[in-house]
Amino acid sequence: MFTREECKKFIDILGEELVPAMGCTEPIAIAYCAAKARDVLGCEPQRAEVAVSGNIVKNAKSVVVPHTGGMRGIKAAFAAGIVAGNADRELQVISSVPEGMYQKIADFEQQFPVTVSVPPEAEIFDIAVRLFGGEHTAYVRLAQDHTNVVRIERDGEILFDRPVSSPAKSDRSFLSVENILNFANSVPVEDIKELIGRQISYNMAIAEEGLRGDYGANIGKTILRSYQPDIKTTARAYAAAASDARMNGCELPVVINSGSGNQGITCSVPVIVYARNLGLSEEKLYRALCVSNLITIHLKSGIGTLSAYCGVVSAGAGAACGITYLLGGSYKDIAHTLTNTLAIDSGIICDGAKASCAAKIATAVESGLLGMSMYERGNQFFAGDGIVKKGVEATIRSVNRLAHDGMRETDREIIKIMLDVN
Fold first, then answer.
1. Is residue 267 within 8 Å of 292, Cβ to Cβ?
2. In this structure, which of 7, 24, 118, 372 has its CB flanked by the most CB atoms within 10 Å?
3. CA distance 65 to 71
4. How confident is the prediction for the chain on average, in pLDDT?
5. How many domains does the chain have?
6. How far lies 154's CA from each of 75, 140, 151, in Å?
């Protein structure tokens, strides 16, 4: 068992990664960067240059930007940030835009001169906005993470500058499946109640809205209507419905995980559905969500923020581990569930944020539940079965290597296909 002081290291990680965001995080990062540059400029902008990496294009081109009346893409996110963004709110930069502003954002997007480029030397995560207004210019650049400002200039003067590197975060080197379970069993619930409680409230609210409304391809509703209803179907449907809503302009926030709302949804909503359907205690749910969130973070830490590897695969595996914990699973049960899940669906590609993300979430949750059911019935994958290694941590390192290194060329080709580059 861990002491309260030892538990704090894990809570710090959860606090850094489980933050609220309104809308898909890549277009929201564009809106944040634009609002920040507008504040630096200090006058009415007259034209702009926006430079983004291919991965930002991939994740911003097809999703609806919330609080814009249904607008999509990079220029829509930029316009929303300039016209109505509050940079102090970071990933909630456009969370309080009144409906009366929607037409102003649309008019600005249509009329304001802005050029968008994709520099070949850009980092995987890279957004830069340069504004021109009167005699003044302003420049803001984000790199490696959604709110990681690395450079600010005004009229050519450097106001802020730091090396382009990942933002300073808590040490993750001690994360392992075993340590995560020890933390989940040790942490005083009152120390995580606000943090995890917010995730439960936000992510279930958008899931329920996704099932009520008409969003995108309505994957969540389709699952409920197409399969015999049971707890597994309900878990998949609620998670998919939350993404249906989020990818298609729903104006509700989510609590993200590892920079992604879809990952935050996937690693939490199925666990919550299971706990509520089985009538389990609030304490058990909070501890299980510590497991699912931290295993997702553990998996993503070796992959990076953006990749050709679909992030909900990691989150679906995290959810399966959280559910296994809910059901009384041991370290061995959880380790084998995780290994089985990663063996089943590692390699699903990320071809951008869009309506079909909801279907990938449903697939990832289904794979996680299959991995759990396999081990419940005495079945498992063994070292040497594809990328599976001996021991869960070795298998995680295999997946990290696949996603971070092996799929780089895949990522470049996906972006070319999406941009119709021959």
1. yes
2. 24
3. 6
4. 94
5. 2
6. 22, 9, 10
Whether residue 388 is found in the same domain as residue 241: yes
pTM: 0.94
Domain that holds residue 131: 25-161
Whether residue 105 sits in one domain with residue 189? no
Positions of E strands within 12-154: 20-22, 47-52, 114-117, 126-133, 136-143, 149-154
Domain check: are 185 and 129 in the same one?
no
Containing H/E element for 160? Answer: strand 157-161
Predicted local confidence at residue 167, as pLDDT: 74
Is there a domain that residue 263 lies in? yes
Place of tokens 């944040």: 32
One domain, residues 194 and 134: no
Token pair, residue 350, equals 């990320």
Tell whether 193 and 303 lie within a shared domain. yes
Region of 378 (left: φ > 0; alpha: ψ -120 to 50; beta: rest) is left
- Round to whole Å and give the CA distance between 146 and 374: 37
* 87 and 184, same domain (yes or no): no
Residue 76 confidence (pLDDT):
96
CATH of the domain at 369: 1.10.4100
Please report the pLDDT score of residue 421 as a whole number: 54
pLDDT for 208: 98
- Give every CB contact of residue 277 below 8 A, 6+ residues apart in sequence: 231, 234
Task: Check whether residue 264 and residue 354 sit in a common domain.
Answer: yes
Q: What is the pLDDT of residue 304?
A: 85
Where the chain has pLDDT below 50, the residues are: 422
Span between the terminal Cα atoms of the chain, in Å: 56
> Collapsing DSSP states into helix, strand and coil, what is residue 353?
coil
Buried/exposed 226-260: b ≥16 CB within 10 Å, e otherwise: eeeeeebbbbbbbbbbbbbbbbbbbbbbbbbbbbb
Bridge partners of residue 21, in order along the sequence: 254
How far, in Å, CA of 420 to CA of 168, rounded?
36
- pLDDT at 168 (0 to 100): 73
Domain finish residue from 161, 191, 215:
161
